[in-house]
């Protein structure tokens, strides 16, 4: 180092000199809502890559439920396991996906307890992007769960009369509903204090919704008062749509009901979630 370089290194940095360096290049534009949401969605997928145990609920549980109900109760409920599988598999597909949505709230609450979301809220990005990104990342989990259930069903002998088109349409509609339902769990994750609390409350909500429905049996076999409860259950309408599309029929009224309920879930729980997220301390 020569004398001139030593003098420059020891000279104090003036404000004007620092400003000229900072303004020398063009300031990059701020990322938009779509880009930031996709970035946080990619973060959710990377978490699955590094912690693959997160996929237990989308792999092991659907397989267990399908095998258990088909071979334990199929003969008693439908006369044969093959006939019951044709009725059961669309319902199991619904149950697997809506139960998976609970993990969204548990994961978000874990991030909140670790202080990760405090850092996210300080970033110069679209405020809802961490939440939306987490939900988008979970859509991949729903897709994996759907693929596993359908593949297992085909191996066991399930044959959808609606063909590939009916299966794809039913899965798409199921993913839309699951994404919208996830906003309920994001709201709970911002209210409750621990991941265990989120998991407990979520199970208390989802178990009655999934079992008091037409997923496993035809409601006609139930008492009258129970049939009335089942008929107003949104999971019942969702299972009816998925079952109809896979059977080759298009229950337009039921599809409309499911879409309206999906919009209502986001319209109700989305704003509440954002208010809680903005005011979270």
Account of the protein in words:
- The protein has 281 residues and is mainly alpha-helical.
- Helix content is 78%, strand content 0%.
- The protein is built from 13 helices and no strands.
- It has helices at residues 3-10, 15-22, 33-50, 56-78, 81-100, 102-114, 116-121, 129-156, 163-191, 195-211, 224-231, 234-247, 252-279.
- Helix 5 packs antiparallel against helix 8 (129-156), helix 6 runs parallel beside helix 9 and helix 9 (163-191) runs parallel beside helix 13.
- The mean pLDDT is 85.
Detail the topology: elements first, then pairings.
Layout (H helix, E strand, L loop, with lengths): L2 H8 L4 H8 L10 H18 L5 H23 L2 H20 L1 H13 L1 H6 L7 H28 L6 H29 L3 H17 L12 H8 L2 H14 L4 H28 L2
Helix pairs in contact: 3-8, 4-5, 4-8, 5-8, 5-12, 6-9, 6-10, 8-9, 9-12, 9-13, 12-13
What's this, in brief?
By secondary structure, the chain is an all-alpha fold. The chain is built from 13 helices and no strands. The chain is elongated.
List the total number of helices: 13
Q: Work out the helicity level.
A: over 70%
Radius of gyration: 25 Å
| Number of DSSP strand runs | 0
Low-confidence stretches: none
How far apart are the termini? 51 Å
């Amino acid at each position: 180092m020569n004398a001139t370089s030593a003098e420059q290194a020891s000279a104090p940095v003036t404000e004007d000199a620092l400003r000229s360096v900072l303004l020398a290049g063009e300031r990059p534009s701020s990322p938009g809502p779509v880009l930031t949401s996709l970035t946080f969605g990619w973060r959710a997928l990377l978490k699955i890559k590094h912690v693959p145990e997160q996929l237990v609920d989308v792999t092991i549980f659907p397989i267990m439920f399908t095998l258990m109900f088909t071979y334990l109760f199929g003969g008693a409920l439908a006369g044969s396991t093959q006939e019951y599988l044709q009725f059961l598999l669309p319902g199991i597909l619904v149950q697997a996906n809506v139960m998976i949505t609970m993990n969204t709230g548990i994961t978000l609450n874990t991030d909140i307890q670790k202080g990760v979301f405090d850092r996210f809220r300080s970033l110069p990005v679209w405020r809802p992007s961490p939440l939306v990104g987490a939900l988008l990342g979970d859509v991949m989990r729903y897709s994996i769960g759907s693929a596993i259930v359908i593949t297992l069903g085909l191996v066991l002998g399930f044959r959808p009369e609606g063909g590939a088109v009916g299966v794809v349409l039913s899965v798409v509609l199921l993913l839309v509903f699951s994404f919208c339902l996830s906003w309920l769990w994001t709201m709970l994750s911002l209210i409750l204090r621990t991941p265990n609390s989120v998991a407990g409350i979520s199970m208390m909500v989802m178990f009655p919704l999934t079992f008091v429905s037409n997923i496993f049996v035809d409601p006609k076999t139930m008492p009258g008062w129970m049939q009335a409860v089942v008929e107003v259950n949104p999971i019942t309408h969702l299972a009816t749509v998925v079952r109809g599309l896979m059977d080759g029929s298009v229950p337009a009224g039921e599809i409309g009901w499911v879409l309206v309920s999906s919009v209502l879930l986001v319209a109700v729980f989305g704003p509440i979630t954002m208010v809680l997220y903005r005011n979270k301390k």
